[in-house]
Design a protein that fits this description.
324 residues, 4-stranded antiparallel sheet, 10 helices
């Protein structure tokens, strides 16, 4: 059992031990939801209330145990742990209702704050679901790949050594027919590629430091470069292949497109709400360590801004969506 779960159970035990009898039916009735749960499955019954599998999945996603929208296996440890926590939470809430704590000013303030947060989240989720659709994601992808200027990419191997003398000696062996991959394995100090015979895979000119990319792109396919120096040491490059740069696939770009479109939709929603709502921001009274009262400045009123015009259609040469 985790420290968090143990602490939760301890708090539940303390609260329930303070009760002389079981939670009353009235408390159960107060906490029953009247939401239709078509297709949902009851995970547990607590008094006259129910906890559903969807409740467990929502809490598991909030804790990071599963990804949002994923299902949870009912025979997993995560399912049992989260369900136990929800049962304890329900017991505590029922006992609080039995004691009349829901009617206190503190409870009402905190419940109102929680209600606002939940309603705001539901609005954001609804707006995102309506705008960030598969068709919209695909259109964004098509627009972005159309704007990307593609060049050539090179596949090369390299050998990295510390001195010019060592590089010259290896170059002489290569000129006599030695195997490049074997020499890289035996001599290269680049541990990231040495075991693969110095293979760097495909890369574009902007993916490497200038001396390296210059040498690689100047070397014909199948040939090796003369030794050259970078900040890392002395290199020899063998170019294995050259091809037109591949466009990024939809699967590669989809997560970044979704993040960008989600952020953009939320920002647009907030901008519209602020532009069309009168907001009054009052100066908070200054508070000193001695408890002096602050000044009673007049409130600053922000008038609603004029209705925004629809954004113009992007031009063909628009910049791609920023990556996060």
């Amino acid at each position: 059992m985790s420290i968090r779960s143990g602490l939760f159970l301890l708090l539940a035990a303390i609260a329930l031990a303070a009760c002389s009898d079981e939670s009353s039916p009235e408390a159960s009735v107060e906490l029953r939801d009247n939401v239709t749960r078509l297709g949902d499955t009851v995970a547990a019954e607590v008094g006259e209330t129910r906890i559903y599998v969807s409740d467990v999945e929502r809490e598991a996603a909030a804790q990071g145990a599963i990804a949002p929208g994923d299902r949870i296996s009912t025979d997993s440890d995560a399912y049992s742990r989260v369900l136990d926590e929800l049962i304890d939470q329900r017991l505590l809430a029922m006992e609080a209702a039995r004691r009349g704590l829901a009617d206190t000013d503190e409870a009402r303030r905190r419940l109102q704050t929680a209600r606002e947060r939940i309603l705001g989240n539901v609005l954001v989720e609804t707006a995102v679901d309506e705008s960030v659709t598969e068709d919209a994601i695909r259109r964004m992808y098509d627009e972005q790949v159309r704007l990307v200027e593609l060049g050539d990419e090179v596949r090369a191997r390299h050998i990295l050594v510390e001195t010019r003398e060592a590089a010259d000696e290896i170059k002489a062996q290569l000129d006599e027919g030695a195997d490049f991959a074997q020499l890289a394995f035996d001599n290269s100090i680049d541990e990231a590629t040495r075991l693969d015979g110095g293979d760097l895979g495909y890369f574009t000119s902007d993916a490497m430091v200038a001396p390296f990319s210059t040498a690689a792109y100047a070397t014909p396919v199948g040939e090796t470069s003369d030794p050259f120096e970078t900040e890392f040491g002395w290199h020899i490059v063998k170019v294995e292949d050259r091809r037109a740069q591949q466009r990024p696939s939809f699967e590669e770009l989809r997560p970044r497109i979704v993040r960008f479109m989600t952020f953009d939709e939320i920002q647009n929603l907030l901008d519209d709400l602020r532009d069309n709502t009168e907001i009054t921001v009052r100066d908070a009274p200054a508070v000193s360590l001695e408890g002096d009262a602050g000044s009673d400045d007049e409130p600053v009123t922000l008038e609603p801004a004029p209705q925004r015009q629809e954004d113009a259609a992007p031009e063909d040469n628009a910049e791609p969506a920023p990556e996060e």
